[in-house]
Design a protein that fits this description.
199 residues; mainly alpha; elongated
Length: 199
């Protein structure tokens, strides 16, 4: 689809044919649907949308328009939300991707696709709504190994370690607080949207 994007007149017919093939492969077995959603659809949506800001919402919206034009897509909404919810609960914060790290990319994608009323209503009415919402609002707490990676060098008054310094420690804690702040902003916006839609 990316190859034909400059040729706008080709995008719709080619996209529809791809979707027909895609949905014909998913007919029936729920295990195949979950496998394809987790292994192909969600990664494709993340790649299209982008893991960091500025996100490419316009390109993802074109993909969503195509997918939503097929009634079969309704069966993939909950598995998609399940994959995003699980990723929010299990993604570790890393300083390499700061500040767009941890659950941020999955939460930002969920927030964007839930702006679609069809998506939001189907998710809201599902039996899994509460557990998926809890997953989206979760953050993986760092274990001992995670902390060693996040903060390989620590400092405290009176520290005698050669590599430690107060300025290094401040930079690391600043980076971590910015990354956590990005996730908190998306959490807040996401909750406001859900409350607004359901009023």
């Amino acid at each position: 689809m990316k190859r034909v994007t400059p040729r706008v007149e080709l995008l719709n017919p080619i996209g529809k044919e791809i979707c027909k093939q895609f949905f014909s492969l998913l007919d029936g077995d729920i295990g195949i649907k979950e496998y394809v959603v987790w292994g192909a659809l969600v990664p494709f949506m993340l790649e299209t949308f982008g893991m960091q800001a500025p996100h490419d919402g316009a390109s993802l919206d074109k993909v969503m328009d195509l997918l939503l034009s097929f009634p079969e897509f309704k069966d993939l909404i909950i598995p998609t939300m399940l994959a995003l919810s699980y990723s929010c609960k299990t993604s570790m914060i890393t300083l390499v991707d700061y500040p767009y790290t941890g659950s941020y990319p999955y939460l930002a994608l969920a927030f964007h696709i839930l702006k679609r009323e069809e998506f939001m209503v189907h998710w809201w009415e599902s039996l899994d709504f509460e557990s998926l919402m809890e997953g989206l609002l979760s953050r993986k707490g760092p274990n001992k190994l995670d902390l060693q990676i996040l903060m390989p060098i620590v400092w405290w008054p009176g520290s005698r370690e050669d590599l430690s310094s107060e300025s290094n420690m401040r930079q690391t804690t600043f980076a971590l607080s910015r990354a956590i702040g990005k996730v908190a902003i998306v959490h807040s916006a996401h909750c406001k949207d859900i409350l607004w839609v359901n009023h």
